[in-house]
Amino acid sequence: MRTTKQRTAVVEVMQEIDRFLSAKEIHTALQERNAKVGLTTVYRTLQSLVDIDAVDALHSPTGEVLYRHCETESHHHHLLCTNCGRTEEIDGGPIEKWAQQVADTYGFQLTGHDAEIFGVCEKCQAKS
Ligand SMILES: [Zn+2]
Ligand SMILES: [Zn+2]
Ligand SMILES: [Zn+2]
Questions:
Q1: Fold observed for domain 72-128
Q2: Which pLDDT does position 81 carry in this prediction?
Q3: CB 15 within 8 Å of CB 69
């Protein structure tokens, strides 16, 4: 498969499943759909998608890097259910201002910040 085709296949699978997935999960999903993309290529493709902000990446509490193709194109944060993977795209709210203030206080030029919220969603709470 050509690079563009592989990239399309990866994005399509992510849009379809619509939650944060590890590279391995994406690779498995591609195999189930008979897309011949190697795990190394999946990693490489995901990295290039993250580089152009087409895909969001975050570190889960278990230390895994998870990827998601989000609907919101502008800057946002995530509220993630650690049980089922349900994700809400949320506004950074006071975090945006706080990050700028902290950078200013220490004389840093702000280049970015990272803040994700993890929890258990209502549905999963009801189940347990
Ligand atoms: Zn996102
Ligand atoms: Zn849940
Ligand atoms: Zn933010």
A1: Dna Ligase; domain 1 (3.30.1490)
A2: 94
A3: yes
Cα angle value 84/42/15 (rounded, 5°): 45
- With a cut of 70, say whether residue 43 has pLDDT above it: yes
Instruction: Tell me how far the alpha carbon of residue 124 lies from the centroid of ligand 2, in angstroms.
Output: 4
Which ligand neighbours the alpha carbon of 71 most closely?
A: 1
Assigned token pair, 114: 């990272």
Q: Could you tell me the two tokens for 3?
A: 């690079």
Q: Is the pLDDT of residue 1 over 60?
A: no
CATH 1.10.10.10 fits 1-69, yes or no: yes
Strands (E) across the chain are located at 21-22, 56-59, 65-68, 77-81, 87-90, 116-119
d(CA 116, CA 5): 31
Q: How many residues does the chain have?
A: 128
Q: Is the full-model pTM beyond 0.90?
A: no
Nearest by Cα to 118 from 63, 78, 64, 62: 78
116 CA to centre of ligand 3 in angstroms? 9
